[in-house]
Write a structure and sequence with these properties.
This protein has 279 residues and is α/β, with parallel strands linked by helices. The chain contains 8 helices and 10 strands. Helix 7 links the parallel strand 6 and strand 7. The chain is globular, with a radius of gyration of 18 Å.
Length: 279
């Protein structure tokens, strides 16, 4: 995919959760403003492979380019999904599916957005989390999990996101961090980046969570300075279902979640696509 030189809008959305009929209808209604527009889809499209494929195929047919990163829900292995793959094999299956649709993934060369506000290098990331966003007063993963189980706030990942062949989700996270650092070091450093990850790269967005115990499933302290180190013009993320704009170290952080119908109904509706560039 190549972007236009002087036109087009870079949009973003995440947490489509198309298993919900109301959210599926939202996706059916998403449209670009022109053929030059691109769309970032920052994870949690759905749990079943068929739903993820439907949504990405639909969106790729409308937008000039689509960039996808996985959320935790795509990596679940639900009992009702005919695709029984787990862990790394499930992720690679999703990557192959996206490539067949013409959708950019974290495994592909980083595309350059040359439309409005560009040029910037779009950097889709798959990093996971390592339980370092721990609740106050806890010093280890085991202590943090104990607090979560005691409070009844436990992410479904503990049951459905399998890290195979890695011994743990944090080991998978460590491997992804090492791989991604090598790729980022080899990028074209003359251009700023848009860092795209399902999970927030910094802990600050999790400070307002209703249940702070959930933060341990939301990222890693290892990426706390990536927006500075890798010259980010913007950071796009989802996962928290709290759409908003934050600024850190002069960098714009955009949370672009749609979320569940019960969450967006009280806001008066699902809202629309978030405009990333031009801002």
């Amino acid at each position: 995919m190549t972007g236009p030189s002087d036109a087009g809008i870079l949009f973003a959305i995440s947490d489509l959760h198309v298993a919900f009929a109301e959210n599926r209808a939202v996706v059916e209604g998403l449209r670009p403003e022109s053929d030059a527009d691109w769309l970032i889809v920052a994870g949690d499209v759905g749990e079943r492979i068929a739903d993820v494929e439907w949504a990405l195929r639909t969106l790729r047919g409308r937008f000039g380019g689509v960039v996808w990163v996985p959320g935790n829900h795509e990596l679940w292995t639900p009992k009702d999904d005919p695709v029984r793959l787990r862990g790394e094999r499930r992720y690679r299956y999703l990557v192959d599916m996206c490539r067949s649709l013409g959708v950019v993934t974290p495994e592909d060369p980083y595309p350059v957005w040359r439309g409005g506000g560009g040029p910037v290098t779009l950097v889709p990331l798959f990093l996971l989390y390592d339980y370092t966003f721990r609740p106050a007063g806890t010093a280890t993963k085991q202590e943090a999990l104990a607090v979560a189980y005691e409070s009844g706030v436990v992410c479904t990942d503990e049951m459905m996101l399998h890290p195979d062949p890695y011994p743990s989700r944090e080991d998978w996270c460590k491997a992804r961090l090492e791989l991604t650092r090598r790729r980022l070091a080899a990028r074209d450093t003359s251009l700023p980046t848009v860092l795209i990850n399902h999970f927030p790269l910094v802990r600050e967005p999790t400070r307002i969570l209703r249940y702070p115990e959930f933060a341990q499933w939301c990222g890693t302290e290892e990426t706390a300075d990536w927006h500075v180190e890798f010259d980010a013009a913007a950071v796009v993320y989802g996962h928290l279902h709290i759409p908003r704009t934050l600024w850190q170290d002069g960098v714009r952080f955009e949370e672009v979640s749609l979320g569940y119908p019960r969450e967006w109904r009280p806001r008066g509706g699902p809202g629309g696509l978030k405009r990333v560039f031009p801002p």
